[in-house]
Write a structure and sequence with these properties.
Largest sheet: 8 strands, mixed, barrel
Low-confidence stretches: none
Radius of gyration: 21 Å
Shape: globular
Number of strands: 9
Number of helices: 12
Order of helices and strands: HEEEHHEHHEHHEHEHHEHEH
Strand order of the largest sheet: 1-2-4-5-6-7-8-9
Bound molecules: ligand C2E, magnesium ion
């Protein structure tokens, strides 16, 4: 009996593994096709100064609309693109597309930075610096408008190599930001050695404000620390007016989240901007 049960369990387990492996394989194959047939687009989530209600920046977030499966979320395909190396090609496309949109905004007289997410593989890529510098030149984008988001885990490991790479990026004149701050394993002693400009407080700390007093303490502490280190701080995943009020009271004024806006396709940005102006009474 025990043996039969064991066999069944094993059988069941391996079927589940097969399903997961099959899904990975499916996504991997479809990704190659998707790059060729242009199934990707970028959405842009506004970052709002909650004091002035002005848009101070945008985060570019990739979207994949599969012809049969519909929207496939980045959390599902980015890790596979990363593991297969396809992220290098995809990431290059994201960079160029985001810079071109940013320049269209500039030409319309709109201010604001453009943040893109970098994956670990791109960060380690020897061609990254040349690639960014080429795109800036091709698009004529002022380097300071481009912000690159990295995660703590990408910076740990070979810390010296990471610091050297960060300095090369800074030398291009672009902004650097640590994404999902507080969720990785970075050490505070390294933080001051990383030449970064801003921190993004992870959504996991923000989401239970004002119900969870520990999260409120942690968020307030991250903001205070960022200020002491002269880093900008952006709060992510802000969904309620209570959260905005808390952040304001604690001197964090740049807010990104559904409270103001979800990520939007390019053609909805101008509509959002004018609605925000109406609210601000401009
Ligand atoms: P992230 O960089 O931390 O991006 C923030 C995520 O939170 C986005 O999810 C965004 O849609 C979502 N979000 C924003 N505001 C709220 C809110 O108020 N509530 C909730 N519940 N969620 C909110 P998304 O677009 O699904 O992206 C997930 C992750 O995928 C990103 O996390 C980033 O790590 C990765 N990613 C997205 N686009 C790219 C890309 O172009 N390149 C790379 N390498 N990674 C990307
Ligand atoms: Mg990000
Ligand atoms: Mg983020
Ligand atoms: Mg994040």
């Amino acid at each position: 009996e025990a043996k039969a049960k064991g066999r069944n369990t094993f059988h069941f387990y391996s079927q589940e593994l097969d399903a997961a492996a099959n899904e990975r394989l499916y996504i991997e194959n479809e990704l190659r096709q998707a790059i060729k047939s242009k199934q990707f687009s970028l959405y842009y989530q506004p970052q709002v100064d909650c004091k002035t209600l002005k848009i101070v920046g945008y985060e570019a977030l990739i979207r994949w609309k599969h012809p049969d499966k519909g929207m496939i979320p980045p959390t599902k395909f980015i890790p596979i693109a990363e593991a297969t190396g396809l992220i290098v090609e995809l990431g290059a496309w994201v960079l160029e597309e985001a810079c071109m949109f940013s320049m269209r905004l500039q030409r319309q007289g709109r201010s604001g930075n453009m943040s893109i997410n970098l994956s670990a593989r791109q960060f380690k890529d020897a061609h990254l610096i040349a690639e960014i510098s080429d795109v800036l030149e091709r698009t004529q984008m002022p380097p300071s408008l481009l912000h690159v988001e990295l995660t703590e885990s990408m910076l740990m490991g070979d810390v010296e190599a990471a610091i050297a790479q960060l300095h090369q990026m800074k030398d291009l004149g672009i902004g650097l930001s640590i994404d999902d701050f507080g969720t990785g394993y970075s050490s505070l002693s390294y933080l001051k050695r990383f030449p970064v400009d801003s921190l993004k407080v992870d959504r996991s700390f923000v989401k239970d404000i004002p119900d969870d007093s520990n999260d409120m303490e942690i968020t307030a502490a991250i903001i205070a620390m960022a200020q002491k280190l002269k880093l900008q701080v952006v709060a992510e995943g802000v969904e309620t007016k209570e959260q905005v009020a808390f952040l304001k009271r604690n001197n964090c004024f740049i807010v990104q989240g559904y409270y103001y806006s979800p990520p939007l396709p390019e053609h909805e940005i101008e509509i959002f901007r004018s609605q925000l102006q109406d609210k601000a009474g401009i």
